[in-house]
Amino acid sequence: MHETHDDAAMPKTADAVFSYIESFTNLERGLFRPRDYRLERMERLLVDFDSPHLGRKTVHLAGSKGKGSTACYIAAGIAARTGPVGLYCSPHVSDYRERITLNGRAPADQLIIRAGRKIHRYVCDQRKQGVSESHLPTTFELLTLLAFLVFREAGVLVQVLETGLGGRLDATNVCQPDITLITPIEREHTDYLGNKLTGIAREKAGILKPGVPVCIAPQRPVVRTTIRTIAAQRNCPVLWDGRKFAIRNVRIDRTGTRFLLRTALGERITGLLRMLGEPQAENAALSLVALQYLFPEESPQDLLDSSANAGLPGRMELIHVQNGSARLMLLDGAHTPNSIDRLCTAASAVLGHRYTVIFGSVRGKDHTTMAERIARDAARVIVSRPGTFKASDPESVYAVFQSLGVPCALELDARAALEHAIASSEPVLVCGSFYMVSEIRRLCIETGIIRDTIDLFGHDLPSRGAAPAQEYHES
Fold first, then answer.
1. What are the tens digits of pLDDT across the range 37-66?
2. Topology (CATH level 3) of domain 317-446
């Protein structure tokens, strides 16, 4: 790579680095083109940058649901025992820095700027060499490269990587993992992954590498069979085979999620998580299988306790609103009927049985089924526009809620929707898409409701050990 470039064009801040990277083809906008999904371009990038993805232990995750939470739990457990650990996940909710963290915190801006400038120089050279715009890297590929460069310069010993889309052709699949995980799989991104669960499972299982152990979350039988077949073909030891976890007595309230777990060896341990909902107990159980493989000498109770304070922005995030009268607000990016159903169950346990919902969903989602579930519990619904990153049709969504007879309002502007919601003392649930959550969370940061910090492992929260065993009884 050449080093002589006009410094005036170089990004001078971390935000400028992310803005520059976002100027490339951004597949998260739903722009599907077959040429965008291939690994050769990512592999060439890494060769040209002297393989920044190598030289450290790697945990790699794919799946449809729970990837971010599971990855966060694993990274927190690793950070408690060795360090530093790098976590790369998506999407972000408020800040691109959420995607690339070191020990649960955002990297120093200078790390991002230095890596971003190297990327800028490289792309400038590519253009000078005549590489067409259509063959330049995508936004996600450059973000993945940025993560590897930051991890290398920070001296990261272990990296935990979440796929962005699919698995087989995902930019993260250039890694050489020490262990892989497949979280629950459902129909998603059908324009790219196809509409059959077996096909989607094959794409997700594309991250399995010969001889590398795999942990499989509970799956539908056809998905479990597909993944196990691929694991057998590649001689991957299966640390957990997709059977249901022995989780009992899940209790959810505003302090967190408590549960009992029986391990594969018959040990009974108690869990207490900052993140809310029964799916979080399942995600934590899957992460525990991976942590036990990485740290076989540690007790499962100690390993699980390491994840107690871990959490991601906009994933079952509970915040306190002080605006005249105090109330709770729960933010979650749930955007499928199944995830909305489980979210509403948790929301009723945490917020009570009378709460306001701010709902915003992008086109192509099953609005009707989600609305039917929300209408069962919500006191009122405010439909809003989930930003402009992806196309949406809030008027049609509003019409669905109207047809169900639930009290509802249409507030296209997110600020107006938030003001409407907190005009009363009722708790608030925000859901329907990460884009809707992002809009509301940004406003909460602007108004001081949320601190503008990234703390995925809960460093600033009180230490939380396991819940007292006497509180639980096997049922």
1. 679 999 999 999 999 999 999 999 999 889
2. Protein-Tyrosine Phosphatase; Chain A (3.90.190)
Domain at 7-305: CATH code: 3.40.1190.10
Residues 133 and 99: beta-carbon distance below 8 Å:
no
CA–CA gap between residue 247 and residue 218 (Å, rounded): 12
- pLDDT of 323-374, one tens digit each? 666 689 999 998 888 889 999 999 999 999 889 999 999 988 899 999 999 9
Q: What is the dihedral of CA 437, 439, 440, 443, to 10 degrees?
A: 150
Name the residue type at position 24: F
Delimit the CATH 3.90.190.20 region(s) of the chain: 317-446
All residues at 6 or more sequence positions from 219 whose CB lies less than 8 Å from its CB, including other chains: 182, 184, 185, 201, 227, 242
DSSP 42-63: HHHHHHHTT-TT-SSEEEEEE-
User: In what helix (H) or strand (E) does residue 417 lie, and over which residues does it extend?
Assistant: helix 414-421
Residues with Cβ within 8 Å of residue 131, at least 6 apart in sequence: none
CA 364, CA 452: separation in Å to the nearest integer?
32
Q: Which residue has the tokens 């990261």?
A: 156
DSSP annotation string for 270-324: EEEESS-SHHHHHHHHHHHHHHHHH-TTS-HHHHHHTTTT---TTSSEEEEEEES
CA distance 56 to 260: 34
pTM of the model: 0.91
Q: How far apart are CA 230 and CA 210, in angstroms?
A: 10
State the residue for tokens 């006191």. 379
CB-CB contact of 258 with 284 (8 Å): no
